[in-house]
Amino acid sequence: MPAQPHPESASRAEVDEADKADKGDEAGKDKPGGARGVATAHGGSIAAVARRAGVSVATVSRVLNGHANVRPATRARVLAEVESSGYRVNELARNLRTAESRLLLTMVPDFGNPFYAEIVRGIDSVARRAGYFMLLCDTGADAGRERSYFDLLRRHRADGAICLDPATVQQANRMMADESQALPWVACCEFDPAVGVPYVGIDNFRAARDAVRHLIASGRRRIALINSDDHYLYAQQRRDGYLAALAEAGIEMRDAWRVNVNCLDYEAGAQAAAALMRLSREAAPDAIFAVSDTLAVGVLNGLRGARSRVPEDVAVVGFDDIALAAQVDPPLTTVAQPMRELGETAARLLLRRLADPQAQVPGVLLPHRLVIRQSA
Amino acid sequence: MPAQPHPESASRAEVDEADKADKGDEAGKDKPGGARGVATAHGGSIAAVARRAGVSVATVSRVLNGHANVRPATRARVLAEVESSGYRVNELARNLRTAESRLLLTMVPDFGNPFYAEIVRGIDSVARRAGYFMLLCDTGADAGRERSYFDLLRRHRADGAICLDPATVQQANRMMADESQALPWVACCEFDPAVGVPYVGIDNFRAARDAVRHLIASGRRRIALINSDDHYLYAQQRRDGYLAALAEAGIEMRDAWRVNVNCLDYEAGAQAAAALMRLSREAAPDAIFAVSDTLAVGVLNGLRGARSRVPEDVAVVGFDDIALAAQVDPPLTTVAQPMRELGETAARLLLRRLADPQAQVPGVLLPHRLVIRQSA
DNA sequence: CTGAAAGCGCTAACAT
DNA sequence: ATGTTAGCGCTTTCAG
């Protein structure tokens, strides 16, 4: 199989299949000093292949990497030897030599959340086509840690990074005001255009405003907002969109209707909804806008527990449009984010940055869309 | 910070923080031949640190790796230099030298599925404590590909692998009958005890039988099974458990009640349920056992569309007990799998194998549990 | 307790 | 078109 044809792909010849065991190796000559065979696995080295094929290591390397200047006959001979010996390139060595890990780091606050899972898929798909693999870090897994994930870049563990975690994005923006721009990373979903780090996301202000406008248009006046931590930029933007919609309709906003949660899981949504419905009859909301579908699904459950009907008593609007949104009862009206594209775009921006460190990579805003189902 | 105290952890001194830029580097001497500075990033090399600290590279290495034989004063001097220069070890070089990538490959059929997401978390948590990072591959992403993911092991891209994908597990068991036992990997959830590859999972036969027994105990007689591809071992085992429960109760099994789907998402469950309810009144089931909660959630939706009440008209039992199971309406009765532990155990087995390649790593079966909620 | 030096396996000059 | 060879940056003998 020759070099991969895909435009973005690294031009390395893939050495697939051929599962036979290796023939005699250089068998530890036991020279004095240095590590003996510590790194030598079953496959043999490129030198062993070269010797058996009767060519130099350079030629084997050229064949392996799909370089042009190799006579077909020679190439065939090398390939045959590779095939029969089951040789596999040692990427550890290749990586050191080329000074790249061909790994992309993806930092997620919680990949149990389907929203992030879908974005990660988008990242993975374009990364792989470009010959990169994905190092996945659940930043929520050890929240207490001081350690910076960006150190993984400095230590050459990954060539670039995509950060989906708002907390980590903010920490990065703060802690390395200048250096963060030097490190090859892009922010996804949470971003600060002012900082100069490439990003991709949506217009959270408008998206939230659209959602609340919809609620208002359908006659709701007592609209609650279940938001994530106001510390995050996207949370602030969505809150402002909510406030703007209320203001333009001349609707009063009550503090009791604004609740912040520090976790976006179902349980948090259910509890927030339950708390909201414990307000006195005249203070209880007739609509709830949750900034995440997982939260909204929990809200549906909390409302059920409070014996409130949706949408009759309380209308519910979610955010993201994860697959689950269409399955719950009632199906969720929600603000769709192009999750897949968010991930793909993030990866492409990063790849562009890696291909040309000088490149001026832009920030991009993708369109959102209000999906009206039956919960509002 | 000295060597990490954690029992499983690699004893490498962590070099955190210190974000200042590096001082003057060796500055490409431009010797003839060889690559000049191609791999030299901002941080400077260990040699530069050694020179500036007035010690040898060996000493710096010893300090960095928390070795004992270094005079406190020397250690302090090195640490100070590391700190002030913002030096970071180049793991590419370290990896080549030590012949390990310190990466664990995790193969998942679909990490959009919360079941797998939770297992992956379990893996990640123990892997990280042991100083490994996780390379995540969504095997469903490029299903058509012939390429073997196990090649990543042979190419030293990862030190070991955990496979959660039934298709890939079977392919591995088939394609490399002997070699698969040599490669450091463990099967999770889908496994064949006969093959000799370490594994962790549950007793699928018993779990399914328990679920169906529960249905029978609550008076159901017309029990449908929505299973995944019968090609998979776990699917066969669950089917057999279903059949056994039916047989021991002397209940007839109808072919029309057995449906196989090749995808475990909500939509597949909804469609399967809809199809089941299109059967004539006397042929329609009064209970549905779905082998995955995602399927079961879809079933709930499909049943709603068919105007069947749950559990009055049709009882539903799912499998896995993902967080969502408790949120839907009605809350799902399901067979709980210890997802987190499944992942943690898989990682521990693999780690044990890596620590001692000769070690006889066992197969382990974790307990399941029937969680009765309101759907059945 | 410290230093000198040998490579790990590979890629890419540079020569032929 | 092919071979020779110099390192990539690190860890680890082995000597002192």
UniProtKB/TrEMBL annotation, chains A, B:
**InterPro entries according to UniProt:** HTH_LacI, LacI/GalR-like_sensor, Lambda_DNA-bd_dom_sf, Peripla_BP_I
CDD domains the record matches: HTH_LacI (cd01392), PBP1_LacI-like (cd06284)
Sorted alphabetically, which Pfam families does this protein's record hold?
A: LacI, Peripla_BP_3
- Taking every annotated instance into account, which residue ranges of this chain make up the domain HTH lacI-type? 45-98
The annotated regions of Basic and acidic residues compositional bias extend over: 9-33
Statement: the UniProt record of this protein carries the keyword DNA-binding: yes
Region (Disordered) residue ranges read 1-39
Record bears the keyword DNA-binding? yes
User: What keywords are assigned to this protein?
Assistant: DNA-binding, Transcription, Transcription regulation
Molecular function terms, GO-annotated: DNA-binding transcription factor activity; transcription cis-regulatory region binding
Listed name of the protein: LacI family DNA-binding transcriptional regulator
- Species source reads Paraburkholderia tagetis
> What lineage does the source organism belong to?
Bacteria, Pseudomonadati, Pseudomonadota, Betaproteobacteria, Burkholderiales
